[in-house]
Amino acid sequence: MADGGKDSMKDLISSMTKRISAERKEKKKKYHTPTPVKNSELDRIKYQKLKSKVDKNEKQYKKAVDDLVTSEVLKPEEEGYMEPDDEFQKTYQITQKELAKDLDVQTVEKIFELSLKQYGPYQGVFNRSGRELLLAGKKGHFAMFEWSTKKLYSEIFLNETVRDSVFLHSREFFALAQKKFVYIYNEYGREVHCINRNLNPLQVDFLPYHFLLVTMTDQGRISWTDTSTGENVKETRTKAGSSHVMRQNPWNAVMCSGNNKGAVTMWAPNSADALVSMLCHRGAVTTLQVTQDGQYMATAGTDHKLKIWDVRNTYECLQEYHTRAPVKDIAISQKGMLAVGIAGQVQVWKPTIFSGERVNEPYMTHQLRNRNNVETLNFCPFEDVLGIGHAEGFSTIIIPGSGEPNFDSLRPNPYSTSKLEEDMEVTALLDKVRPDMISLNPNYIGSVYKDTYKRKSLLHDADPSIFADPEEDEESDGDDDGSDSDELEDYHSEEEAPEKVKKVRKEKNVKGISPYHASRLREDEKKKEFLTNYEKLKTEREQKSKVIDEKKKKLISGESVALKRFF
Description:
Blueprint: H1 2-29, H2 39-43, H3 48-71, H4 96-100, H5 105-108, E1 113-115, E2 122-126, E3 132-137, E4 141-146, E5 151-157, E6 162-167, E7 173-178, E8 182-186, E9 191-195, E10 201-207, E11 212-217, E12 221-226, E13 232-237, E14 245-248, E15 255-258, E16 263-267, E17 276-279, E18 285-290, E19 296-301, E20 305-310, E21 317-322, E22 327-332, E23 338-342, E24 345-349, E25 364-367, E26 374-379, E27 385-390, E28 393-398, H6 418-430, H7 450-462, H8 470-476, H9 499-508, H10 515-566
Antiparallel strand pairs: 1-28, 2-3, 3-4, 4-5, 6-7, 7-8, 8-9, 10-11, 11-12, 12-13, 14-15, 15-16, 16-17, 18-19, 19-20, 20-21, 22-23, 23-24, 24-25, 26-27, 27-28
């Protein structure tokens, strides 16, 4: 009986471990990690230093994923949606007044409306922690306050046009795109800096992990300014005229801009040309937004269309919806909800709108008072709150399930203290990402380019001396002329390739190798061409000198005969 009990316990433990391991594998799939390097590919790396670096990076990636899966135990809270009582009731029919009856007192206090008719329309921007709110009126009024407690930090009337506003790395600083320049203010409303390089700014945005302030001017120039050093990193001309729409992709920090021709272009500071150009609408693009994971993009235009795009793989339109009026603004929450402002109405859609399947009805709707038109929409981080900016002020509504219920204490969160914010600011500066590392696929940096590596491995199998270390060759054999250690070149045509490369290509179907080896072989080929040309010139000169000598001899012999005849 005892042995049977032990066996049953062992079976139970083994089944539990199998189930836990299977659950961990499923959880690991949702985290984006670079493609792992296989052990066979790792063993083929000849240089020990490079091999150890690649192995160390792989171990760090695996440990990071394991830590993320383990940390999910500390996230007990889950988002919840509003569910109807019966099948005949629709959630979009429920108003904010009806919803407030079933909410607690603290949540009801988050619903408020500010009547500011004189300096509108207004734009409301929440900071990354979701605790502070920045209100900016188009006619020159701005105010920054803690919206949950209504504690006012600063309020100033600039008497100048304010086109856009954004928080910087912390709540202490924010930037305003005013009539002529971009100005940076602190939390008390004092002007800290003026960026006078960008005339007539229309849009501003901030990349928190790169400390870059991005500005779009009315002349179609997009510029990146490092706020930690004050350096102008890059300024590019979009060649598409003025653009009133500019949003960042939170996943890869690429800026997306929509122009009046209906095209959306993606920009990075390390490229003078657009990374991607997409024709999205038949009219001007009015607004766009990208999801937190960077997989989907929602765009709207003057052609009364709302479109969902796949911006990770195919860049194709997944769904298209017709709207009764042009969409004014779009916002996407932390959990993937889509808010759309159409005239005086706000529609909120569940994350299933990005699944590729057509959704026939919204999750919630809200009608503004006095038939005001929606100007801006912004979800509050870590809260089920949507901020709406309109011509007569600013208002908030409750959207159940829109905010992230769990927060990371090492990142901006609603419960962080001033001491913790200072530590996070120092850590962010130390971990600042370089601007030239911005690309469409951020996982590309630090990974192994397998196509190049595969070509090198095939060439190494064909002729190991191709990748021999020149220093080792000199130490082993000092009298070697270096002909055996010539690297192959990355030629683009068979006519241009030397005989050695042609032989290897025929055997292994290899198209070329790295530019370093290409430059080395080009130099060798130039030396060979110079020597052959020199030898040809030398032989030609010798032949010419022989002919001249023979002519001289004939002339001398002829003169002697003529003199004999004369005498």
